[in-house]
Amino acid sequence: MINFNYETDFNLDNEEAIAFWLSAVIISEKKKEGEINYIFCDDEYLHKINVEYLNHDTLTDVISFDYTMGNEISGDVFISVERVKDNAGDFNVSFEDELKRVLVHGMLHYCGYKDKGEAEELIMRNKEDEKIALFHVEQ
Prior knowledge:
Elements: E1 2-6, H1 15-28, E2 32-41, H2 43-54, E3 62-66, E4 72-80, H3 81-90, H4 95-110, H5 118-138
Parallel strand pairs: 1-2, 2-4
Antiparallel strand pairs: 3-4
C-alpha cells in the first residue's frame, strides 16, 4: 500500500495515478508491494531528520528509510518540496518531472539500487529515466 502524507502546504493533484505508477515500478522490478509512506515536507523538517538520523548537516531533497524484508518493499520516503522546486529550476526541468524523479529514486533504493559512486549513480539515473517513462505508458 502506497500512502501520501503532508507535513507542509503541498498536495499531490493525482495521488491515484502516482500510486498506480509506483506500484508498476515495483512490479517491473519483480518485487512485492508492502507499506510505503511518502511524507512531503519543507526544508526545515527534512533537515532535522538529516541531522538527527543521518548526522548530515545539509539540505537534501529526499531521505528514505528502508524497511524492506526479503522481496517485499516497505519504507518511509521523506521529500522536501522546497528542494524539489529549487532543483527543478537548477536542472531546467518542470517541477512535476523533478518530483517524479525523487518519488521513484526512493523506491529504487528499496529495490536495491545505490548511488554512492559514479558507476552506481549512472545506473540509478538510467533506472530513474526508465521508470519515469513508465508513468506515461501507464496513464
